[in-house]
Amino acid sequence: MTNPFGGQTRPAPGLPQLPTPPTGWPVGSYATYEEAQRAVDHLADSDFPVADVTIVGVDLMLVERVIARLTWGRVLASGAAQGAWLGLFVGVLLFVFSPDGNFLPIVVGLVSGAVFFMAFAAVSYSASKGRRDFQSASQMVAGRYDVLCEPRNAERAREMLAKLAMGGPGGGF
């Protein structure tokens, strides 16, 4: 069984599966995830037992990219749009299950969802008192990506990736 944090695990009855550190010997180090992925793809294309391989992000950073400045207009419009979508969904469900085929539930759901969500967005933005007047997106990135391999196949993997880096059979970066 594989866990999302890497490595093989054996589930213990009644215990949660806990993250385990990766195992293996380093066989390559890459500046981007795309390069590490390409290296593992090269190994897979060469019939290498890729179940022994792990990509590990090292020197993790949380990067928050500022997208836009928040204004009252943007906050209210965003709240109204979110509410309209939810209201539309509820309205369509009510319409589908109503016996008379009236479109009124769709309109009521759309409008009431937009109004309520706009009010909630206004209260939330007002409560922040200008401490966070911007919209952003956060992403976890690594400073480098190491490719590890179990010791039984590490030398072979290292040789194959060295040939790949030098532009040998299978192409280079």
UniProtKB/TrEMBL annotation:
Domain General stress protein 17M-like stretches: 27-93
Keywords: Membrane, Transmembrane, Transmembrane helix
Bias type Pro residues, positions: 13-22
Residue ranges crossing the lipid bilayer per the database entry: 75-97, 103-125
Keyword DNA-binding part of the UniProt annotation: no
Ranges where the record places region Disordered: 1-22
Domain of life: Bacteria
Family matches, as Pfam families: YflT (PF11181)
Keyword Transmembrane helix appears in the UniProt entry: yes
Name of the protein in its database record: General stress protein 17M-like domain-containing protein
Species assigned in the record: Pseudonocardia alni (Amycolata alni)
